[in-house]
Amino acid sequence: MYARAALAPRRHLAGLAVNLVRDMAHIAALLSEAKTILLVDWPSRDVPDTLARHGFTVISDDGPRTGYNSYEPAGDEVRVRPLAGPPETADVIYTHRPVDELPDIVETARALGARAVWLQSGRDASGAKDPRGVWLSEEHARKAREIVERAGLSYFDAPYIADAVRTGMTRR
Questions:
Q1: Could you tell me which of 84, 92, 93, 112 has the fewest CB atoms within 10 Å of its CB?
Q2: What would the pLDDT profile of 6-21 be if each residue is shown by its tens digit?
């Protein structure tokens, strides 16, 4: 009885480790195949700048007043160039918006032929703002995953996308 109880947490941790390895492999494959990433808000310039410096075509949807912009590496900096309209296609939609806005974002993702939606909360485990934070409550994470996967898209909410790119989770 005691041995079985002691093994239960280990089995749970082993399951988490298997899921983590599977998710990391899925992220690596996604980022390696992706060319264009559409940003729908982001917590800091680190996101578009890092993605652009690592060879992605980065386009931001900055809302109706500002429109769309492209982020392009130019030497040691990343320049922002206004675009006439949205991209024709995108492989990944990265968003830093509330979960309640996901249905419209998913609709955009499907219209652009994206394979995945990557949601970043911008919060740490205490709920405090953190530009690299990826914490979501279980309820919000479940709701977000359901919205995205119901549309036939892959869902990611961790790790922080710029860290994933910087740490080599892409074969670029």
A1: 84
A2: 444 444 334 334 445 5
Across the range 28-51, mean pLDDT stands at 95
For residue 67, give its domain range. Answer: 2-166
pLDDT tens, residue by residue, 60-78: 998 888 899 999 999 999 9
User: First vs last Cα of the chain: how many Å apart?
Assistant: 51
Number of domains in the chain: 1
Identify whether 171 is part of a domain: no
Query: CA angle 163-51-91, nearest 5°?
Result: 105
Q: How many CA atoms lie within 13 A of 77 on its CB side?
A: 3
C-alpha 127/C-alpha 135 separation (Å) is 8
Q: What is the CATH number of the domain that holds 144?
A: 3.40.50.720
The CA–CA distances, whole Å, from 95 to 88, 102, 140 equal 18, 9, 14
Distance (Å, whole) CA 150 – CA 65: 31
pLDDT at 22: 60
The sheet carrying 116-119 orders its strands as 77-83, 68-74, 57-61, 36-40, 92-95, 116-119, 154-156
Asked, for residue 172, whether it belongs to a domain, the answer is no
The DSSP secondary-structure symbol of 84 reads S
pTM: 0.86
In this predicted structure, the answer to whether residue 116 has a pLDDT above a threshold of 50 is yes
